[in-house]
Amino acid sequence: EAAECFRKALKILDELDVSLVERLRCINRIGIALYKHGLIDEAMDHFEEACLALECEAPDSLLFAETLSNVGSVLFCRGEAEGAFQLLERSLQIVEAVAPNSMELAVGYNNFAFLLDAYGLVDRALRYHKKVLEIHERRSPIDTMALANSLQSMGAALSRRGQVDQEILDYFVRGCLLLEERERSTLALASSLNTIAAVLDDRGQLEEAMNLRRQRTTRVQAELQEMQRIDESSIPHFIPP
Asked: Which residue in 22, 80, 137, 166 is a FRET match for 29, CA 20 to 30 A apart?
């Protein structure tokens, strides 16, 4: 149904004689709708049509970057991982040039890093985790929570290389310190403390790990009690007539 609506919109756009880029945007949306309904080959036809035209008409646009990413998604469905990686990297390069330091770029880097991790390409993924961290460090006054999460991701990415060293611990600790500065982030902090405890376990620092787990338990209990108190205070009390 969504694809059919976009096709009707495309006909209207043709009648209105709108710009080619807007027409290609609609073709891309048709492809997305088809993709979501499992019609992979039909979706690919639309993505490729949009890609070929945008490469000539708007090679530096975010729309072209999005369309390249969509083609990459189809390639993943077909099992063509390396070709998909190449297109996704090209897409990210365009976003880097058009919108550096943007949350859109950080999200793109982050998703790509986790995708590489899933395929066991740990060193390649680590480069993108670092790029995410660099963006969040520059934007940290805006969103310290995103920076804290990025620091945790860096620690986790390094640990997947089989390392258990001070650098990993430093990333997790920096993330914890940021979480401590925020109100209502106790549960996230507790999770981070648990992660640090696991790293300490691997390093043989068992007593320090145990102390952190005690802190985690205390924080979780305090948070749950506070949440229960808030819930109870919000229950309306009716005075019977």
From this structure: 80
